[in-house]
Amino acid sequence: MIRIGYIPADERFPHFAGGAGDQRVQSVLSTPAIDRGQVVGSLNVYSRQRDAFDDRARDTTLVMAAEVAHAVVRSVTLSTARTTPDLCRNSTTRQRSSRVLKAC
Predict the structure, then answer these.
(1) In Å, how far are 73, 75, 76 from 99, measured between CA atoms?
(2) pLDDT tens, 35-48?
């Protein structure tokens, strides 16, 4: 997790600071969206207020990032499930068994 209370004073991400300043962003809270130990995305929260994110905001963002990860993984699973019938229709019986087992 990365928490920046005041972007102009933070030297870790100079390439980001310029663009954030253009949007008047002062604070950032960024956390990875992790599912089963794998990063599948990130949740980035921005504020135009200085030091906008306290420990409570951090805890809330961690919960939200877990939900984001679940949604991302589920969308990939759903997409795979939707393509499986197409694989079955366009395959021979032997190929179907192999592909369906791999998809599951």
Answers:
(1) 20, 20, 17
(2) 989 898 999 999 99
Confidence grade of residue 78 (pLDDT, cut at 50, 70, 90): low
Mean per-residue pLDDT of the chain: 82
Tokens standing for 9? 């004073």
CB 75 within 8 A of CB 18: no
Contact 26, 7 (CB under 8 A): yes
Domain range list for the chain: 2-103
Question: Per the confidence metrics, is the pTM higher than 0.70?
Answer: no
| Token duo for residue 48 | 């135009």
Tokens of 26: 């002062």
What's the fold here for domain 2-103? Answer: Beta-Lactamase (3.30.450)
CB 1, CB 29: distance < 8 Å: yes
Helix, coil or strand: residue 13: coil
